[in-house]
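#structure-requests
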Amino acid sequence: MRRFFGYKHWTLENNPRCFYVGKGLEGRAQWLKQRSRKHRWVQETLGCRIEVCSEFFTETAEIDALQWEVENIVIENSYTTQYAHTLDDIRCNFTKGGEGVTGNHVSRGKGRKLSPQECARISIMRKGKPTWSKGKKIGSRLSKKGWETRRKNGNDSPYNKGRHSDVYSLSTKKGHETRKLNNPNASSESSERMKQMVNNLTPEQLSARAKKSAETVRQKKNKSND
């Protein structure tokens, strides 16, 4: 069972203002370096006093801490959508609270099965929030946009239609012609060298080469079937 804390960050002005409300495990309230740019600017400009307000140590500790965070962001009016660094708006809660999973780490293996308590916690946090892709047809939209762009440019065919085969055939044909031009007897010389090499092999070596060739063919066939 983990212990959660609810905390607030205040300025060091004569009339202190609460600019951030949060929740987390022990020590999270004092963790000031890895915050938003605006939060760090407020720290440097107006100072920061840390107030640990509540402690939660029950089976539903994180859910209770999340609920406390939501309520106190409303009480302190620390929610904002303004990222600009101004003295008029020093609020640094860019969400209304109750989001995220504390201590959530991706495992190095295939992952682990979530406990019923974790599933319930995530379900509560996501309740009423639509998925980012709801109502969107990402793949079809991008494909249609690309197709319209190609048609607008006067290209009605897919961008890669025939490209690979044409380029490959042209380069292969050109390579053959170049080699033939540079050395007209290359093919016959290669055949003669192959015959001499085979004639110099012993029957055992020929048998080993045949077995190796058959094994290679078999492996390629099995791989293609898979």
